[in-house]
């Protein structure tokens, strides 16, 4: 917890935690990204020439299952050129908010910056019928070598206006502070590492926040005072804590997302993540929503990201 980070005044309208619509980007040339691998040990370069075809099958199955569950899924097409191996993870470069704000984020890897495409934003507005009234563009921070990779770097409690941030080469405290000032959030910053002492590259690997629950890998948070600060905030905002181990974190058990289709909450996670959970953890999650699992082994292994990373929630208001 960084006590010196200036905290904003509460002025924003209330916002539900979970969205009824998501943006997904269907990849054109999915593959292992050597530019992101140094900071993401979850990436493993083991797939052969069928990676693109396999990734498409995994992507299409997830999109179809979400639609069958009642969620609105807006699918944008990636372009073959320039090559964007991680285009399947749009939540790192854009986020959409209930007051009409769209945020663009600074990305560490140069080839990931190519994912920010105006055509996709136009599709959200024109085809999706959503209304953008303000754009917060943080991408100039790339010029000074500081980064904040969207809702990978930030796990947002949208109801409580809290932005949880595990600091890493991809998550700079100064940029987090600017996000917080612009969008009226309080920052809960901490440091987290894996068993080898490497910084956890994205916050959404080790934790997730739903309406009434929070999944958290407390043992990854390196300083006890920071750990207690995170736990205290989660408890104070009424979240049931579902603790996962470091081993489960490495199976993407923290990389899940609560969504809000008609009929009740849905919690999307991968088959790999679900299998790593014990029966008590599964029951705890099921108290807060129906579980929807997706089998995405190639995307997880090569991309180093899970189901949550594939979904950019659309909280924007709709046009009349």
Which keywords apply here?
disordered N terminus; 3-stranded mixed sheet; L-arginine/glycine Amidinotransferase, Chain A; 15 strands; single chain; alpha/beta; 320 residues; 11 helices
What does this structure look like?
The protein has 320 residues and is of the alpha/beta class. The chain has a single domain, classed as 5-stranded Propeller (L-arginine/glycine Amidinotransferase, Chain A), CATH 3.75.10.10. It has eleven helices and 15 strands. The protein has helices at 51-68, 110-113, 118-126, 150-153, 173-183, 203-206, 224-236, 246-249, 271-276, 279-286, 297-303; strands at residues 21-26, 72-77, 94-96, 101-104, 134-137, 154-157, 162-167, 186-191, 207-209, 213-216, 240-243, 257-259, 266-270, 290-294, 312-313. The strands form five sheets. Strands 2-1-15 form a three-stranded mixed β-sheet, sandwiched between helices.
